[in-house]
Amino acid sequence: MQQLQLHIQEGRDERQTLFCDVLLPVPVPKYFTYRVPYALNDSLMPGCRVVVQFGKKKILTGIVAEVHDRVPEAYDARYLLEQLDEQPVVQPLQLRLFQWMADYYMCTPGEVLNVALPSGLKLSSQSQVQLHPDFSFATTEHSFNEKELLLLQSLQAQDHLSYADVEKLLGQKSLYQLFKNLLAKEAILLYEQVKDKYKPKTVRRVRLQPGLVQDTASLEALFKALESHPKQADVLLKYLREVPVLKEPGRNEKGLAKSELVDAQISPSSVRTLVKNGILEEFEEAVPRFWIPEADANVDIHLTGEQQGARQQILDHFEDKDTVLLHGITGSGKTELYISLIREALDNGSQVLYLLPEIALTTQIVGRLKKVFGGQMGVYHSRFSDNERVEVWQGVLNGSFPLVVGVRSSIFLPFHNLGLIIVDEEHETSYKQYDPAPRYHARDTALVLARMHGGKTLLGSATPSIETYYQAEQGKFGLVQLHKRYGEAQLPQLELADTRLALKQKTMKAMFTPALVDGLKLVVERKEQAIVFQNRRGYAPYINCEECSWIPKCQNCAVSLTYHLRVNELRCHYCGLVEYVPTACPACGSHKIKTVGYGTEKLEESLRLLIPEATVERMDLDTTRRKNSFQVLLDDFGDHKIDILVGTQMVSKGLDFEGVTLVGIFDADRMIHYPDFRSHERTYQLVTQVAGRAGRSSKPGRVIIQTSNTELPLLHTILVADYLGLYKTEIDERRQYFYPPFSRLIRLVVRHSEKELTETAAKALAERLRSKLGVERVLGPEEPLVGRIRGLYLMHITLKLERQGLDVPAVKQYLLEQSQQLVSEKAFKGVEVVPDVDPY
User: Which positions fall inside the Helicase C-terminal domain (predicted)?
Assistant: First the structure.
């Protein structure tokens, strides 16, 4: 190849030979060393993306981790093929974080990289080729050889081709030179390159040719020249009305959006003629994909006396502690405190990350923060397009977004001076990623990230996790408490509604107790609002046959299929399988098929029948899949277009509506009796958080909890909001049974498509681990609650490790070695062992 010949020629001079270690998106626990072409010696820096050859066939894009002069001993280093970035797109501290996550969460840096980067910067092993949007055979000045023509003609017939498709089409393996030539001729784009895949959004604008209009006389002369072309004169007149060039000459440089100039009276052809004749000039301007207004100077945050005191306590703790827990009851005004601290950090020149557990929560809080911080703020979550996320990434990189509000993936952004991280609702399970690797917890990773930057972390919650509160009680974290609601608001009154008694008395209405139905009707009469919580989406958890008890099961997972009425489908919420609803039982032929249980969709339908005068809507994963669906629902609820909002745990997090005076919790029993050592903690958290949506104004709030056992001690702990009582009970039990925070948990998930092989492999691995680590530390294997997902049978091995006196990194390395040794044996071919550290 011509480029390699150039490298050989350059090698004859006396310039220094450099090498670079490249992080590649492959699940291999090491970096790969490549030789740096002499032409790139002065420009290549850590954090830049480079194109390299990996193996015999693959062309990959990687991140440079280090540039050095050490010759690799194990292999002859290849030359890297191309440098993509003039400036780094990944910061040195990010590379440190990637490595820490790989070590702690028992995965590889390449797996971290795949999750960390937005798709617009994503590193892909499969290049995708497409025609350049501006390419045309009719206008190009370039010539093409036979293979180039064949590829371009194929791309005219298809939107894109993969690297493998092009190999097959052209009958050749090495495509680098071909792609390089066509890129130089601006004929194709390669998806995996940011300069190709990410393209700034632009608008076309027009302006008067600079210098054409100097004074009134020159303007009159221009109109006189257009006397015979009245349509063109109309275009010019409209432009001058919008852009008065004589009064404000500077405005002509920015011009006017072409779309504003063209209307029903003015045709695009008139504008094109003026451009062609040199009177108007057309140009492109890059614009952000999402609009954030300037901050409102009139918005001011007024803290109450208690909030001022809490703020000062937080700052005092930050003098000698890196982390502070803010334990504030629901509605106590934690967000106002956050805003005050963010403003101070930004004024001091620091970057701030404000983490939220759910996209739904960002929707409402972002609206409040926009008014205070305006264009200083970037928003980052998965509902944004690839290009929008790249723009936020670049905005953090260049300093235009010193404040970022986002969900767990925001911890991967390229911060360089992170002074404060706020983790709101720190107890939320949504901060934990379960698939793919790294299976990280954003709260715990945020503590490490802040420490790397020399910054501080503020954890906020009305119901802190037991582990976090324990750290505060032990003095490792600072502890600040807010006991009063903001303003005139009072905590809602909680009461229990006995479903067992109502069933016995036959007063239940569609599984709603009389207390809840009457309460909802009263709310609607008073023109107030209510939220009904049921943490199960769909119409019904399952359907069954009344004659033979047949229940439709997922063919890939060990769960029943959930019935969704609106689309008339049976769906698996684990693998996404969809089946039609049968009209007759496939087992016995009976038509007596009924739904069992209640999901949010069925509650929505039931409430519309029970209270026809009410406007009832639903907020769950099914109704909020589209990009702006959260915002539309929240806007309608805020504008009082919705009387009753039915939802899953999306409705429990941070929603603040003054009109909500009643919250109904449909089924508390299922949460309480879930087989998990955290079930009581999570039930307390979820019920308290949902209850906190009521009574957030001067109107009193009411919460009705439906249960079949009103004597449960946990429910009475919830009724009196006794978090410390819950904490004391839970911490005593965990100390007794050696659960976190007194131990570290690591779960090894053994999986395979054959059940017997899965069980055999899990038992073999557990025995090997016990021989070295002991019986007390290795629990299982046991089948999880859902024993088959996506066609793979699962077995869990749980390790309980001491927090002191044990070399945990060495144990993790041993676990990986034993797992790799097991799956490499012929008897266990195809078995996977997936580690999950801190399986919350």
Answer: 515-746
- 469 and 393 in a common domain: yes
Whether 311 and 399 map to the same domain: the answer is yes
Query: Based on the domain organization, do 641 and 662 belong to the same domain?
Result: yes
Cα angle, residue 731 at apex, residues 729 and 732 outer, rounded to 5°: 65
Q: Is 585 annotated as a binding residue?
A: yes
Question: Which residues of the chain carry a pLDDT beneath 50?
Answer: 1-13, 123-125, 192-196
pLDDT at 362: 65
Does residue 107 have a known ligand-binding role? no
Q: What is the CATH number of the domain that holds 757?
A: 3.30.70.600
User: Do 713 and 763 fall into the same domain?
Assistant: no
Nearest-angstrom CA–CA distance, 786 and 140: 59
Contacts of residue 277, Cβ cutoff 8 Å, sequence gap at least 6 = none
Q: CA nearest 235: which of 246, 218, 223?
A: 223
pLDDT the model gives residue 11: 43
Give residue 57's pLDDT: 61
Identify the pLDDT of residue 625. 75
Domain membership flag for residue 467: yes
What is the residue range of 780's domain? 743-837
Q: Do 529 and 453 share a structural domain?
A: no
Tell me how far apart the alpha carbons of residues 387 and 628 are, in angstroms, rounded to a whole number: 16
Q: Are strands 418-424 and 351-355 parallel, antiparallel or unpaired?
A: parallel
> Could you tell me the pTM of the whole model?
0.80
For residue 283, give the nearest of 187, 209, 388 by alpha carbon.
209
- Is residue 728 located within the same domain as residue 785? no
Would you say 542 and 553 are in contact if contact means Cβ atoms under 8 Å apart? no
Q: Tell me if 291 is assigned to some domain.
A: no
**Using H for helix, E for strand and C for coil, what is the string for 640-703?**
CCCCEEEECHHHHCCCCCCCEEEEEECCCHHHHCCCCCCHHHHHHHHHHHHHCCCCCCCCCCEE
Residue 600 has which token pair?
């949010």
How confident is the model at residue 5, as a pLDDT?
Answer: 39
Q: Residue 494 and residue 95: Cα distance in Å, rounded?
A: 49
Same structural domain, 30 and 80: yes
pLDDT of residue 9: 42
**Together in a domain, 233 and 334:** no
48 is in an annotated binding site: no
Residue 190 and residue 196 in contact, taking contact as beta carbons nearer than 8 Å: yes
20 is in an annotated binding site: no
Would you tell me the crossing angle of helices 163-170 and 146-157 to the nearest 10 degrees?
A: 130
The runs of H, that is alpha helices, within 791-833 are 808-824
User: Within a domain: residue 690?
Assistant: yes
- Structural domain contains residue 16: yes
